[in-house]
Amino acid sequence: MRDSGISRSQRDNDVVLGDDWVAPDQNVTRELQDKRARRGVLSLRGSPLTRKIITLNLIALIILVSGILYLNSSRQSLVLQRAGALAAEAMLISDVFEAQLPEVGTVSLAVGDGIDPVTTLQNISLRAGAEVFVFDTAGTLIAQTKGVEQGGALDLLTDDNPSATLISDGLAALWSAAGGLLKSDTPEPAAQPLEDQLRGMVQQALAGGTEVKAVVDTSGGTVFSAATPILFQGQAIGVVTLASPTGEIDALVRGEQERVLQMFVVALVVSIGLSLVLASTIANPLADLAEAAELGRDGDSRKSKPGRIRIPDLSARPDEIGRLSRALRGMVKALYNRIDSNEQFAADVAHEIKNPLASLQSAVGTLRMIKREDQREKLLDVIEHDVRRLDRLVSDISNASRLDAELVKEDEESFDLLHMLGNLNQFLGEDARGKGIDYITDLPKTPITIQGLEARLAQVFVNLITNAISFCEDGDAIRVWARRRDNRVLVVVEDTGPGIPDQALSKVFKRFYSQRPVEHFGNNSGLGLAISKQIIEAHGGVIWAENIRPTEADITSEPLGARFVVGLPV
């Protein structure tokens, strides 16, 4: 694994190949380590994702090669080149005949008057496999010859030892076999002899000059032929036809196709290899992540000390799998944090409920033995107080347990924060003034609109203001003010009460924590500020508590009161 200290910008350019990026052994369970040790290249056969990657890569490669073979211009180019060369050779042979004709007199190819066609052909050097036919104007064959192996430069034009075309021959055999299964029983007409096919070009050459045509030899190979007239004093006295070696063009085309197919085979092997490497970098890490989750699920179903789910740490990968690993690990961590929080909450609830229950049990037990009426009344008051305390505690616990679900399910809306605070100040201010407490407000004139759950945020400010009222006495003051700062708004609730003990500043937002005078015992569950903090943080805000001191430089001075600050995004 790479060093986790590598910056994100450095990792973004990394290339991940093979199993270079897998979870280290210490981050996975023993069962997952055993599965990874048994993993090999052949194990990728069982991966649907691997099969899809290989299949898609091969389909693209096959389509590419098929297109190259189908649109290959090599055959057409070779045909044009050989046709031009063949026509030029035929015209040269015709020029040889014309050069030997007498300047005056009569010439007849049929009787050899003025020229000997046979001798003339024998004196012409032809490349191996090429055939020359000389016809008179009536289409009668006068002479013919065929090139043999001479070892000269002309034989270099003919490839007598073509390279093996195993792939092309194999595909041709398969195609022939498949065509034979679909072939009808009607026999195909046999090809005409080459001489007869060339004889059919005589009249065309006499009428239009040099002609080039593709014909089929009796052996089944393609032959290109050229026919050109022999002229004497401007009149045609015969025709020279030149036929290329049988299957020459076919062999050249097969050679070109064989080279394409050989490259296809090489590309096929490379594509499969790279696909397996690519699949291993995707399928194997995903399999590790899935198996880690499945091991945790199966362990839960077996109820056999499953332990915690340990997601492999692939966060160093600079790709989506790294993101997935980080997300899954974050989700699992949040899940276990929530489980731990719920367990702690359940333990705190049990502890808090035991106190009034113990008091109730003691009072009820004592009530059975008390005879005096005044003492019974005192015990009944204790029982009534504890029942109210339990009722308040259960209600607050119920609200706290439902809070997360309600914050997720309820839809946030835009509302005027100052309008809400104004309504609360009007209602709670009367309560404070009724107790002899000065209630001061300082809110901006311009509305401040925020996005959130108005009822839940109102619950926060009610908690803060009622807390301030409960700690203040006759002659104290409470001030509620708000200010907008760039992209946030601050709402502050201040009082001139006793302040908060320094050791309690970091604890006041914890569940069931309460720092109140003895006379207030049992009147609060200690969940109000914890719920307020949860609501504010769910809205993306912050809340904190501090003491108001005569000078900030002297932290040992006696506090002049307490201040609660709420910051919310605008």
UniProtKB/TrEMBL annotation:
The HAMP domain extends over 280-340
Ranges for domain Histidine kinase: 348-570
Entry-linked SUPFAM superfamilies: ATPase domain of HSP90 chaperone/DNA topoisomerase II/histidine kinase, Homodimeric domain of signal transducing histidine kinase
- Pfam families named in the record: HATPase_c, HisKA, Sensor_TM1
Q: Which reaction does it catalyse?
A: ATP + protein L-histidine = ADP + protein N-phospho-L-histidine
Cited Gene3D superfamilies: 1.10.287.130, 6.10.340.10, Histidine kinase-like ATPase, C-terminal domain (3.30.565.10)
Which keywords accompany this UniProt record? Kinase, Membrane, Phosphoprotein, Transferase, Transmembrane, Transmembrane helix, Two-component regulatory system
Subcellular location, in the record's words? Membrane
The yes or no answer to whether the keyword Iron is present is no
Question: Known EC number(s)?
Answer: 2.7.13.3
Q: List GO molecular-function terms, semicolon-separated.
A: protein histidine kinase activity
> Coiled-coil ranges per the record?
none
Q: Where are the transmembrane segments?
A: 53-72, 260-279
The record's listing under InterPro entries reads: HAMP_dom, HATPase_C_sf, HATPase_dom, His_kinase_dom, HisK_dim/P_dom, HisK_dim/P_sf, Sensor_TM1, Sig_transdc_His_kin-like_C
User: What protein name applies here?
Assistant: histidine kinase
The top of its lineage is: Bacteria, Pseudomonadati, Pseudomonadota, Alphaproteobacteria, Rhodobacterales
